[in-house]
Amino acid sequence: MTTRSPLGGPRLLLRRLREVMSEPVNAQERLDRIVVQVASNMVAEVCSVYVQRSDGLLELFATEGLSRAAVHMTTMKVGEGLVGLIAKTAEPLALPDAQDHPAFSYRPETGEEIYQSFLGVPILRGGNTLGVLVVQNQTKRVYNEEEIEVLETISMLLAEMIASGELQAIAKPGTNVGHRGPMALKGLPITDGVGLGYAVLHEPRVIVKKIVAENIELEEKRLDEALSAMRDSIDSMIDDQTTRGEHLEVLEAYRMFANDRGWLRRLREAIKTGITAEAAVEHVQSDARARMLRSTDPYLRERLHDLDELANRLLHQLTGQELVASPDNLPDNAILVARTMGATALLDYERSKLRGLILEEAGPTSHVAIVARALGIPTAGEVENISDLVEQGDAIIVDGTTGEVQIRPQANIEEAYREKARLRARRQEQYQQLRNVPAVTKDGVAIGLHMNAGLLVDLPHMAETGAQSIGLFRTELQFMMAAEFPRLERQYALYKTVMDAAPGKAVTFRTLDIGGDKILPYMATYEEENPALGWRAIRLGLDRPALLRVQVRAMLRAAGGRDLRIMFPMIANVAEFEAAKDLTNRELKHLSRHGYDLPNDLKLGVMLEVPSLLWQLDEILEQADFLSIGSNDLMQYLFAADRDNRRVSNRYDPLSAPGLRALKHIVDRSRIAGKPVTLCGELGGKPLDAMALIAIGYRGLSMAPANIGPVKAMILKLDAGNVSAFVDDLIENNASDPSLRAQLQTYAEAKGVPL
Ligand code: PEP
Ligand code: MG
After folding, report:
1. How far is the CA of 739 from the centre of ligand 2 (A)?
2. pLDDT (mean) for 69-96
3. What phi and psi values does residue 207 have, to the nearest 5 degrees?
4. Which of 46-60, 155-169, 211-225, 252-266 has the lowest mean pLDDT?
5. Which atom belonging to ligand 1 lies closest to the Cα atom of 632?
6. All domains of the chain, ordered by start, with CATH?
7. 514 against 516, higher pLDDT
8. What pLDDT does residue 6 have?
9. Is the distance from CB of 704 to CB of 451 less than 8 angstroms?
10. Among 622, 472, 488, 610, which residue's Cα sits nearest to residue 538?
């Protein structure tokens, strides 16, 4: 066994490689020179570069020591052989006796059986494996830590060559390398529509171009300065009086990481191998990413994001490159790609240039999703790893209706999506023409179509869609987007603007529905085991009456001289509604005493979202002026299935006997009580579901503006009497069927009802 110190050391090797990188030769020649240099410097008989193609195979791109004829001929699957194992685990592998390893696979064409020891490292970028770099020796040899480090550093150079597209020039025709080929991903649908354009990364990755250091002491100094500047900036953000709640916690986590000894040690060690400070940060981060990406522990993955953010800040300090895309310099046809994004950040971009939005983490009910929907930007969410798989400027397509994303699509795929977009545009035009057509079924039953809103950007949709009223105004969005509690005057200003924008049309304001998944960054949070069943909505409002009182006062004042409708979310018993009514009446008296203009007509309603109300319907209907069903929550509580948990959210179907019987019971009792009832959850906005709701007796539905056209088109072709008889029979005689969706679909097709 021999353990030799590499000839000339890593610094000499890096210097040589720097020369090779700047030589005016083609990519194959450059790779060939690199493997020769590495083999000779590391006293290895073999050095080989395997590059991962977009079809998943690892192809031998260059070798010193193995048979030259195998270059571009030998391929391996991920997971196959030692090279495939490294690609799969994204971890280095050092073996004195490679042939003893269970994963060893013999490739006669390479002539590698004569080599005994093996050292391979993954070629990583942003945690993704782009290839594998290997050295081999004939004798039994134990590779030391320093050699592994050196090889990892060289793999960074190769990662840049692959990512820059340089190696694409020598790839076999029809193959792609370095994630540069077409790729199809699937996430969750968030906002309908198809967007074609070019990727703009919301948080552009800092591109580290200079990898080899000229002066190591200087790089150490640069790292120290950048670290201290970054720590100062985190400290000053923490000290800032306006930083509170979750944001503060995140910053404190950054501060902890910024002082983490292990992290700092790894950075310093990386610089000692002869690379620049920024290359060291990227190297250490890439390793951490690869390790944590494979972890299924959500806590670890969350920490990975903190670390990523920190590494990004540090790279930003070191290179002076921008941390966040500049919303002002957006190209036309931009498809915004972000890991996560705040709702306000999205509003900073110029809407007319945005063709789509792709998010790695945000789900359909996140704040940014709500804003994307209001802005009508085709959006897909929970698209895994998207921000690492695309490069700035890549051609990209997002289908917000299916959640599909196509990166660097081939011409035929692109054409198919263009056609889909054209068809959709044509359909939208048809819906536009229906704007002033009353929503009346073929047998003359009028259905009220209202819209859900919550932001100022929603308001123009009122006229565009011909919505009858705003059936649900989610007031919490203003609170969620503000940096601090909006005071009375700001709330008043918003509510007045909303009412002014809807002259002659009713607006139903819902009081604050926070808690659960809707968190205010500036409000103290309480750990709750089950936030959906916790301190939220009206529960919070009644326990913090000052908050609710100010909001109700703002609404009453904004509606001076006009009609006003207010509803209270998450009411679970009659007493809660009575308390909310009392509070409102006290506010009315207060305003009247102070000489304010009062609303002409005030209607107070109950949002029916908690199943307990199903057994006190008559009593609540006696108290309420109207009911509005929050089917998103009602169904989540009815089936005990978290609406935001992908594993269970689609497990039960509201279009089933229990779901529809509960909804029918509500509408039947409301009719007897002579009180209006509408439904304002997502259910009402899908044509098939809306058809079922009309069948069981609903005559008013409130939905996202984009859904009004499709639902109206369905209504115009529907026979309400006929569908009622059909659905009545369905829920009477098919109670054991977990979903009646298929039968309803067949019915609609047979009757020519468009869905
Ligand atoms: C609902 O629960 O259906 C509803 C309309 O309220 P939100 O989606 O805002 O909880
Ligand atoms: Mg709700």
Report:
1. 23
2. 92
3. -90, 120
4. 252-266
5. 3
6. 2-170 (3.30.450.40), 183-204+325-418 (3.50.30.10), 216-319 (1.10.274.10), 445-751 (3.20.20.60)
7. 514
8. 42
9. yes
10. 610
Per-residue pLDDT band at 497 (split at 50, 70, 90) = very high
Q: Pick from 475, 479, 513, 639 the residue to mutate for probing ligand 1's pocket: most ligand atoms within 8 Å of its CB.
A: 513
Candidate list 283, 367, 450, 461, residue with the active-site label? 367
Question: Does the Cβ of 58 fall within 6 Å of ligand 1?
Answer: no
- How many CB atoms sit inside 10 A of residue 432's CB? 13
pLDDT band, very low/low/confident/very high, at 530 (cuts 50, 70, 90): confident
474 lines ligand 1 (CB under 6 A): yes
Note the pTM of the prediction, 2 decimals.
0.71
- Parallel, antiparallel, or unpaired: how do β-strands 58-64 and 75-76 relate? antiparallel
Counting residues of the chain whose pLDDT is more than 90, the rounded percentage is 58
What is the predicted pLDDT for the residue at 82? 93
Q: Which atom of ligand 1 is nearest to 472's Cα?
A: 5
| Alpha-carbon gap, residue 359 to 367, rounded angstroms | 12
Name which of 727, 700, 725, 730 is nearest 715 in CA terms.
700
Determine if ligand 1 sits within 6 Å of the CB of residue 680: yes
Q: Is 327 in the pocket of ligand 1 (CB under 6 A)?
A: no
| Distance of CA 579 from the midpoint of ligand 1 (Å) | 21
